[in-house]
Design the sequence.
């Protein structure tokens, strides 16, 4: 129990409350209800040196605090030379100092406890007893340190495992040369799993054999082609423009003469008409060919404006193609 104060809880019926601590004068005793100072005789009266009575019973769960506040701004006893010393005067002077010391001690303890509660609340500690708060704070600190230590151990384990795996991997792949300027691959250990687990050396040997075979085939093909080219008297090609139309012939070798045969059902002569364009006005009689040549030329038989996208051209002779307000035949 505190030496300088006492706390009660109101119940809406009790009016008399005990004052269990000593004091010099009852004016040094302060009464608070819900942290509000109460006055005598307006709010309460003294029934005896150790009991007060409220005029109205404090409300249910009201916080009642009765506290001694000894004045320290002046001495209660002033000794003078030649005066008679009495026990009462000596006790009052000593009690003033003693009570002030008690109140300072408990005030400091209350201040420290309030600060502990504030810190505990910030840390999420629900304890209210000062000793329990300190124990919880120490335990929280120990838990945090233990968790950090465990995490660092896990990190060290993970790093060590990674380094060990890297060392094993490098040992399987090969080793550095003497000057550490290059890495020498161990082709007898490195395997190509996607190709059935063959070692890299086996695969390189197979590639070398295949390359030799291909070189022989290419050499043979080149000889056959040279013989065929030499048998040609003349070798011609067809020159095309950007629209895919034939613009002429070109001689590809130095043959002295040659025949150029045209299949009538495969070859057509097309006038280089202008290419069709979107959203363009066309008049009767104008001709256009598709942007992708199909060998046909289409004549505007109904004047108008072409659509925003190229129509599907009807390639049957005499049929029409509708293009927005234009009709092509």
Sequence:
């Amino acid at each position: 129990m505190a030496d300088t104060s006492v706390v009660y809880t109101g119940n809406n019926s009790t009016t008399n409350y005990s004052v269990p601590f000593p004091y010099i004068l009852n004016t040094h005793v302060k009464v608070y209800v819900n942290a509000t100072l109460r006055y005598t005789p307006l709010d309460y009266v003294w029934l005896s040196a150790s009991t007060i009575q409220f005029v109205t019973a404090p409300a249910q769960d009201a916080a009642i605090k009765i506290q001694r506040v000894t004045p320290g701004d002046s001495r209660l006893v002033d000794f003078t030379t030649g005066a008679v010393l009495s026990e009462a005067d000596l006790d009052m002077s000593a009690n003033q100092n003693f009570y002030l010391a008690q109140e300072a001690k408990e005030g400091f303890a209350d201040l420290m406890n309030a600060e502990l509660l504030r810190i505990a609340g910030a840390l999420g500690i629900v304890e209210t007893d000062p000793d329990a708060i300190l124990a919880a704070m120490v335990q929280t600190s120990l838990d945090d340190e233990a968790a950090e230590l465990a995490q660092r151990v896990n990190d060290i384990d993970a790093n060590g495992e990674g380094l060990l795996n890297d060392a094993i991997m490098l040992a399987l792949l090969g080793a550095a040369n003497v000057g550490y300027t290059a890495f020498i691959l161990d082709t007898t250990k490195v395997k190509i799993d996607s190709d059935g687990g063959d070692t890299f050396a086996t695969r390189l040997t197979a590639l070398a054999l295949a390359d030799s075979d291909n070189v022989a085939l290419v050499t043979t093909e080149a000889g056959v082609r040279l013989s065929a080219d030499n048998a040609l008297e003349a070798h011609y090609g067809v020159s095309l423009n950007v629209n895919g139309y034939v613009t002429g012939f070109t001689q590809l070798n130095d043959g002295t003469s040659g025949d150029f045969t045209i299949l009538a059902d495969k070859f057509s002569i097309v006038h280089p008409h202008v290419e069709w364009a979107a959203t363009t006005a066309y008049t009767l009689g104008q001709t256009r060919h598709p942007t992708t040549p199909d060998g046909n030329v289409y004549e505007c038989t109904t004047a108008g404006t072409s659509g925003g996208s190229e129509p599907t051209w009807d390639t049957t002779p005499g049929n029409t193609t509708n293009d927005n307000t234009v009709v092509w035949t």
